[in-house]
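Researcher: Last one for today. Full complex below.
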Amino acid sequence: MSEVVLRGIRKSFGNIEILHGIDLDIKDGEFVVFVGPSGCGKSTLLRAIAGLEDITSGELFIGGKHCNDIPPSKRGVAMVFQSYALYPHMTVAENMAFGLKLAGMDKHQMKEAVDRAAKILRIEPLMERKPKELSGGQRQRVAIGRAIVRKPEVFLFDEPLSNLDAALRVQMRIEITKLHRDLSSTMIYVTHDQVEAMTLADRIVVLSYGNVEQVGSPLELYHHPRNLFVAGFIGSPKMNFIEGKLVAASDESATVQLADGSMIVTAVDAREGVPGAKVTVGIRPEHWAFDTSGNTLSGEVIAVEHLGEATMLYLQAQGALEPLVVRADATHDAKVGEKISVHLPPGRCYLFNEAGAAFRRVKTE
Ligand SMILES: Nc1ncnc2c1ncn2[C@@H]1O[C@H](COP(=O)(O)OP(=O)(O)OP(=O)(O)O)[C@@H](O)[C@H]1O
Ligand SMILES: [Mg+2]
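Model: Here's the assembly. Have a good evening.
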């Protein structure tokens, strides 16, 4: 069993606290992805699990074993970093075997472990090459191979694909999914890439300033973000936010007056909302509609991007904190400078109170 349990993990560098008490239960065989803005503590948390950083306070258990004081090599974890850091003078096979050799494994067992990993990663024909004779994706596979040979119970990945080009990332993402299926080890993966997070994760952990904001399946986070931070972080392009004032509230809808005077109905349980209070309406770029009247917002088109499969419109509207992003059909023919109205389907809207907490959505159209 290789579940990973974090209880009140705190980490300070000098007198600056970076992690403020992280609680997390990662199940055996689960694929968990950490996301969050740069500097929020993702790598620090991963390194603390690996044992590469001491924990200031709190408790860490791996496979039921209290690990705070266990050295990294005895924790049953292997970490794959963003920079592959392969030894340039060694062949692929030697690079993969290096850690095992240091650990004193006999030659026969070592070869068996390396061959098995090479087969899983489909790098058998590359075994006698030096790192400089490999592509980025192949090097990253060797770095993963170096982790696999150690037969860890838990794999830790810190942005392993961020040095690769877009096509290779897609290919490696699929490889990692397959690897998880084949090895069924627990995997903890840090990424900045929304698509990687959404497609790889059983559960995503959203971090901000060393705190956990929300933990949930990718679709839970997409449909039911707990607060403005998570709502703005999950989804790309990000959710649009429009400030307004709550004018009517019930257990199945809330009516919000926007800065331009327009009234927007949202399908949320707003029993706790106070009429007159400041609120924020959220709607994702992919959820606006054009063919319905009412519940609309007007804005001036300030930019149009034709992506081939869709057209992205950027609108300047009163009350919107940033230009609104609207994903429209590929054939949409709006022109810069034009004033247009866009419809907000009530069931597609999110609503947040002044403190940023989300009202529960009562349906998702
Ligand atoms: N060894 C260190 N000494 C002092 N401060 C550190 C050290 N390592 C990290 N920090 C600080 O801790 C904070 C969290 O860093 P961390 O590397 O965990 O962020 P991250 O979420 O991985 O960011 P990124 O997405 O940019 O990789 C940052 O403010 C960083 O400056
Ligand atoms: Mg990092």
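The domain at 237-361 is CATH 2.40.50.100 (OB fold (Dihydrolipoamide Acetyltransferase, E2P)). The chain is about 25% helix and 35% strand.
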